[in-house]
Records
---
Amino acid sequence: MRDVALPLAHLGRALRAEGVGTSLRDELDAAEALTLVDLEDREEVRRTLRIALKIPRAAFDGFDRLLAVFWGAEPEAAPSRAPRRDRETPALPRGRLLHWDAEARRMGDAAGTPRDGERPGFSPLALLRRKPFDQVEGPELAAMERLLVRLARRLAARRSRRLVPTHGRGRPDVRSSYRQALRTGGELVALARRTRAQDVPRLVLLLDTSGSMDGCGRFLLTFALSLRRAVPRAEVFVFNTELNHVTRSLTAGKVGISLERLLDSVPDWSGGTRIGESLAAFVEGHLQRHTDRKTVVVVLSDGLDRGSPALLAEALRRIQLRVRKLIWLNPLLGDPRYQPATGGMLAALPFVDHFAAAHDLASLERLLPHLSN
């Protein structure tokens, strides 16, 4: 929190000078909220601060402009409508390093360039979030895998809206507090509290390992492996021309070791694919045991199937009837020219609750709200 306290204080002061009613309580809420998000993701930080600081829609432009100054990042292209400004607050020209002059209560030229580490910024790793998996190579491989592991941990740490009793910090529970007071003759000795329960999703991941998935298969498998390590109630299957249940192979060792073990043990890796037959095998052998009405099933495949579209459609129909949500992630969907016109995808889409891309880390991040209960 020390890294964000000073820029948050400056940001709050500058916002108040522009007529935005940000309070100290809002700044404290923002500092706490930032501990729950990824500070390297500029867009996530911006959305978090907008909410925590209670920025009105009319002040969004000015907020983005000031955030770029105090967080060391260039703002996005400004909308055509110019933001309302205090007369004493000059516009922020691009390309100049500015700082908040507390005495003059205005933005002014900085006396010098701050030393490295004095101003928070967004890590270069943020660029990897929107880099297609099939273009990641060399030293970026390890960095991308670390980001995928962190993404899986974020899912495991998500909180639900459901409130449960807690002995630590939380919201006061008046009703439970009065009930406890009855045990001490009506004297309120301590407040009962409730907090948001940790949301532990139940997941089943079905990953296509055929040759057409080679460009992003390693990263999607890393994501699946990381999910399994972070979410105990996750089951992982891989398929190409046949289905393989690989959950036990992913529970021990590091990511690299587990990947090598799978490459050696899974037959026909990077070969052909029969999605319909593989999913039909999942329905017959694993659907009843590993799924229920609280389960989210995620299929990660490009939909290029050599098998029967009718068999695929029937398998997905039975899966959808059994589970809470059926998600299909397609790496090809990241290309704006892509159209799901193959027989496999046309057969699958009527039974898919959520169809989305899986070509980069940002697309997987957008998946998280759909995985939680």
---
Amino acid sequence: MENLDNEVHVWRSALDWSPATLDEAMALLADDEVARARRYQFPRDRRRFVAARAFLRRTLAGYLAADPAQLTFTYGEFGKPELLLPGLATRTVEFNLSHAGDLALLAITRGRRVGVDVERVEHLPDLPAVAQRFFSSRENAALNEIPAAQKVFGFYCCWTRKEAFLKALGDGLAHALDAFDVSLDDAPRVLRVHDDPDAGSKWTLCHLDPEPGYVAALALEGHSCQVIWQ
């Protein structure tokens, strides 16, 4: 397995796959993943889910020299997946997957929690109401200071940073979205967590520009880690 101790690798994949490629992808999935795919109401969403899970399996398998179809996942109380690797406790791979629209991002590291979130930038006619509902008062104040032409971008910067942080924690439902603050500027960081005054020094936030029309963020436990696009 590649040395991931001081690196986090970020992989990206388009999800608009051909029918033949999707058939191959479906064959890699476990029964629970197939069941989840079938619950999607719209065929496009179902296809993208299958592609994203196959992308996850194939990429992780490359690090482990394993068969993608044989990887087994376990899920935490709040749904965050982890690899079940009997006998490999000292070589634990940490990862997080996010997909939006036709794009998936996968972050892989070792020995530290990681979260990634990607969103497709869209016009939001109710942006102020959404921000008031989900952002903290400090974040809303910062958003209100952003010029109108850049406000949508600022909104997505805030949203992806908050989501990436919650996904890295792995217990997102236990944290209200307005119970912590992230920055909206060019220096991404965790500013405050209501029950952890030292949180800002424990976490690294990174802004990502994966593709035109998308905004993404990476949350990583600790510091001194190099982000490498694959």
---
Amino acid sequence: MALLRAPRLLLILLVAGCARERVAEVAPVRPAPAALVAAPKPAWVARKVVPNAVDLAAGTATVGPREGLTQVAQRTNVPVGAIAAANSIMPTAVLKPGQQLKLPAGRLHTVRPGETGIAIARAYGADWTRVVAANRLAPPFTLEVGDRLLLPSKVQVAAMSIEERAAAFKINIDDLITGAEPAARVPHAKVAAARPLPALPTAAPKFDWPIEGRILSAFGAKPGGRFNDGVNLKTSAGSAVHATADGVVAYAGDAVAGFGNLVLIKHADGWVSAYGHNQAVLVARGDRVRQGDVIARAGATGAVDEPQLHFELRRGRAAVDPVKVLPPRA
């Protein structure tokens, strides 16, 4: 009997297995989840700084067990860099339990979307270079939304000389090129108000003239101790100003005295081009441009009284005579 039941049992198992196979064949296939598409990052937009800092009084702090500068900064509400600067130590310094640290006085400002270092300093009447030193900021001085900066107190600003106060509101092209007025970076996806500049290739670019027109003022020394870091080209109001080479717009605004509406473009191999006195600017910070793209309309803004383009080429901070780099003019 056992021998007769064995084939029947085998048959049952085979039928059951086929049934499972048929079920597997007709089982509905779950659709794959839709691909997640990252939302495009909006262009960085500069916003006016509202000087609403919190006043900080001078004091001291005792280092506790297993505390570093980060922990002391969190406990005292004073930025790490400010504590480091006040005590002449590095932000990465190793502390000892019981060590006494000076806490500087001043005003504590929290960086918000669209704010830049220079704009923050100007809002409080402070010299940007002093703010850099007081917070132990390092080039390129890129700030993140939520960072905290220690600014001079009202008493400290009032004690500044007239010359120091005037210097606090001076910005030059060197400041912009070296990153003293960067866009604030977004530390995480929840805050979408800024973006870092895209990376550039490293090969040296080939430049072309941004406009046609004779040279009104050549590169070099001028009477009265002045020096032209570029060339001024005669043009008519509203003429198209073209990008001299491929690059990324690093600045577009009118914060630099004398240059009116100014555009800076970063190029490969450390080169930067500048376009001043524009009637209108057609690009924004972070825009990628190709050689020949129209980036502005020429005008007479800034310290000039006739339409012209102030054009500079720099390798890092060093100004280079465009005539020696660009193609010969017809």
---
Amino acid sequence: MKKILIIEDDQLVANIYSNKFAVDNYQVETAADGEKGLELIPSFNPDVVILDLMLPNVTGVEVLKKIRAMEGRQQLPVIVFSNTFLSNMVQEAWKAGATKCLSKANCTPKQVLEVVRGLSQAATATAAAAQQKAAPAEDKSPDPDTADDAFQSGIVQSFVASLPTTLNSLRTVMQALGKSTDEASRVRNLQDLYKRVHTLTANAGITGMVQIVQMADAVEALLKELYEKPKSITPSTIRTVALSIDFLGMLFDRAKLPEARTAPAQIKANILVVDDEAISRRAVTHALEKAKLPSVSVESPEVALGMLSERVFDLIFLDVDMPGMNGFELCTKLRALHRNKSTPVVFVTSLNDFESRANSTMSGGNDLIAKPFVFMELAVKALVFLLRSRLAAAK
């Protein structure tokens, strides 16, 4: 019997994977943190390790390095789970010796099981042949597809039932964050919010709730960056976190609908970035690339207005302080165009005073991000508006 060690700090997620592998005749052990996982490897002697990179205290990358330093464990298959948006950590995992890197947000238990099977395909085939010779009796095991469907259906029902409680807990922490008066308390609340969203991302990925996964995965990455780099905690980033939590509530309301699990995983969008400064334009497009969102960028407001009169865009990012025509003026003019009169517009500007926020609204803008911005903040903001538009179009 093959042995699998699951190193995962979320007990619910660990139990789901453990049950799935046990049904498929794997012997499974779980560890809630990296230290416990490292202790189990010599005694349990697993054939495969499934490792979450986002572990408390000792990170998954550090655990992986220690595994590879163990005698005789250089070739031990280690499958790591990561956040889609934390590409640097994924690169570190590959360098540390990961056998396979998977996004927890995009993997169901069935898919992970198929990866495990693939890693030990030769051994499994040999064992199966030997078993068939020793016991050629009729196979009375349940049909795999039927068992998978029943297993997945149960997980989905449990997940949907838990969403109201999840939303209440997120909003409670968000309210505490809004009332925080010092950096230490803000960091504590952000860490708490991160842990809850981290769990949400994993559970949504297991159930295949595509849109919840897309949103939660990005918010998780933003929260991690904020509590690790407190200087990035600004009124702008806090507003973006609050916006994302509210939008997750909208997605939770639609979780029972069939399209919650059938929506396309890849968001196809036409995004326009207008900024006369090359560095600023590149910063915005790079942030969008982190969310796998391609964009078109231009420096001239006049050129942008011409494009907006000819093409439909799904989202527009505008600088405010531009020569010839400022962002507020451009926004007012594009609102008069039939093609883009309702396209979401987000201003990206160093002007973050009350008057600027009022002008952004009066000119027809939907939101504002303050420069200098955190890349993940802009990515999260973009996903909120694009997914919200997708929901509106589906009605």
